[in-house]
């Protein structure tokens, strides 16, 4: 079996699936309407200089002129790990730019409402592990990489690739990454920058020199160096664009590109659609009959393992151990597939044997080794829980595809029909005490109205006797289970 990238393209959405040995491992989704222009590089033209605002308006070929402040006309900033930065003293805007001048700029803020995009001349190009800084001669290391030994190792590797074109910032994601991957990033970024410089000489003002890569291109960039057998694309236009992109920037991936022209949708062929649906459910079935329960909250994600129908063939301890062992691979896959980040608490079934605990932990770490996001696993806590973290790289699958339930408001539960019935009876009593009414009409959902007429009819009758007034119940098909109104007549 092979490792494949499947690229599904529609006018409004692009989806990329990583399938390894027939199993879906990752899903990436990008909606066209949510794509901004931050990161794009333009050859602009100064349309107006405003000395009073210390700013200039720049025509970059959009409906609204973009905004460039004097403080954003800067040389490349010093690297993040250099103690003393050389601060650039912004002179008068009129000394820095003039009307009609061509200028290369990068968007740092999308246009909003009546305001145009915010620009800078301090251009940077990001890749997965590095940020390229044209014109700089330094290598910086993210401050979030704390190990001095690791910082020095990364700096030594990347420093060999600094030349007259520019320097680099090493991103947090580079921690623990091998020399080959880092070198591939430096080669990619330099190719990209040379292409931008070439376009600056050829293109007219108000042209795009570089667009921040869309999903399909970013994925190819990020998968350079990984073991991919085939990249299948179901859009002829996107396939041709990717072909050109790989020829220019990542030639090693070019032979692996394949245009998919089958009649069945590409995601259906590999059962990706069904896997995505299953990845939105709380319960994950294990082949043995056991199962996981995954709950994602604002603070953390919890994973609970249960033996379910799995009874094993030997003793209970062996059954528990085998279920936990099987769960480790399923957990690692679900974290990638659902893109769950932050703190993750795993509640394995209690094991008495220290050897079993050690082997389960080892199995979990091995399964997580395939994850491209950084993970860190702590041992079993005193309560028998495994605490781990996974670096947040983007929104989780649930957050991309789902919204808060309008009925339960994110609780994940709704009140029972019985609870709502009793709430209605209490509300009738409250309203009767507060106001003078001849009778009441209760509007409720179909299920609640039926319960008040059948199971709770005696409670309703007792209430009518107690308050000495008629209470009529009317079903409202559009009401949710918790929704009701008590109307005085």
TrEMBL record:
PROSITE patterns: S1. CDD domains: S1_RNase_E. InterPro entries: NA-bd_OB-fold, RNA-bd_AU-1/RNase_E/G, RNase_E/G, RNase_E_G_thioredoxin-like, S1_domain. Its cofactor is Mg(2+). Residues 39-128 form the S1 motif domain. Keywords: Cytoplasm, Endonuclease, Hydrolase, Magnesium, Metal-binding, Nuclease, RNA-binding, rRNA processing, rRNA-binding, tRNA processing, tRNA-binding. It comes from the Bacteria. Its main location: cytoplasm. It is found in: Cytoplasm. Pfam families: RNase_E_G, RNase_E_G_Thio. The keyword rRNA-binding applies. Gene3D superfamilies: Nucleic acid-binding proteins, Ribonuclease E, catalytic domain. NCBIfam families: PRK11712.1, RNaseEG. Belongs to the RNase E/G family. RNase G subfamily. This is Ribonuclease G. The gene is rng.
């Amino acid at each position: 079996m092979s490792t494949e990238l499947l690229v599904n393209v529609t006018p409004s959405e692009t989806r990329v699936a990583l399938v390894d040995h027939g199993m879906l491992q990752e899903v990436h989704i990008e909606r066209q309407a949510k794509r901004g222009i931050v990161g794009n590089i333009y050859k602009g033209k100064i349309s107006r200089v405003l000395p009073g605002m210390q700013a200039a308006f720049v025509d970059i070929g959009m409906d609204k002129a973009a905004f460039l402040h004097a403080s954003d006309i800067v040389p490349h900033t010093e690297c993040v790990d250099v103690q003393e930065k050389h601060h650039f003293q912004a002179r008068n805007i009129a000394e820095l730019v003039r009307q009609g001048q061509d200028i290369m700029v990068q968007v740092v803020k999308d246009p909003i409402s009546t305001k145009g995009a915010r620009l800078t001349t301090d251009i940077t190009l990001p890749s997965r592990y590095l940020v390229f800084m044209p014109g700089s001669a330094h290598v910086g290391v993210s401050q979030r990489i704390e190990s001095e030994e690791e910082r020095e190792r990364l700096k030594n590797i990347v420093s060999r690739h600094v030349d007259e074109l520019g320097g680099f910032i090493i991103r947090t994601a580079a921690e623990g990454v091998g020399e080959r991957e880092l070198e591939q990033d430096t080669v990619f970024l330099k190719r990209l920058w040379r292409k931008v410089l070439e376009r600056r000489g050829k293109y007219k003002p108000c042209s795009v020199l570089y667009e921040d890569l869309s999903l399909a291109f970013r994925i190819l960039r990020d998968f350079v160096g990984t073991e991919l057998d085939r990249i299948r694309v179901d859009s002829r236009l996107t396939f041709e664009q990717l072909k050109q992109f790989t020829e220019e920037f990542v030639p090693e991936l070019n032979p692996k590109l394949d245009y998919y022209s089958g009649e069945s949708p590409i995601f259906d062929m590999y059962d990706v659609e069904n896997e995505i649906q299953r990845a939105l459910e709380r319960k994950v079935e294990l082949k043995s009959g056991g199962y996981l329960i995954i709950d994602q909250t604002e603070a953390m994600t919890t994973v609970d393992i249960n033996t379910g129908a799995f009874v094993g063939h030997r003793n209970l301890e062996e059954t528990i151990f085998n279920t936990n062992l099987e769960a480790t691979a399923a957990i690692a896959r679900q974290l990638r597939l659902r893109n769950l980040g932050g703190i993750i608490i795993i509640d394995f079934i209690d094991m008495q044997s220290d050897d079993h605990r050690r082997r389960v932990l080892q199995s979990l770490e091995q399964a997580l080794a395939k994850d491209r996001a950084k993970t860190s696993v702590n041992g079993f806590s005193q309560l028998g829980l495994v605490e781990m973290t996974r670096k947040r790289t983007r929104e989780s699958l649930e957050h991309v595809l789902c919204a808060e339930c309008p009925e339960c408001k994110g609780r994940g539960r709704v009140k029972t029909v019985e609870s709502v019935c009793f709430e209605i009876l209490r509300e009738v009593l409250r309203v009767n005490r507060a106001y003078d009414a001849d009778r009441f009409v209760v509007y409720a959902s179909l299920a609640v109205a039926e319960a008040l007429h059948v199971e709770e009819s005696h409670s309703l009758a007792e209430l009518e006797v107690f308050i000495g007034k008629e209470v009529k119940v009317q079903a409202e098909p559009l009401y949710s289970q918790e929704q009701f109104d008590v109307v005085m007549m």
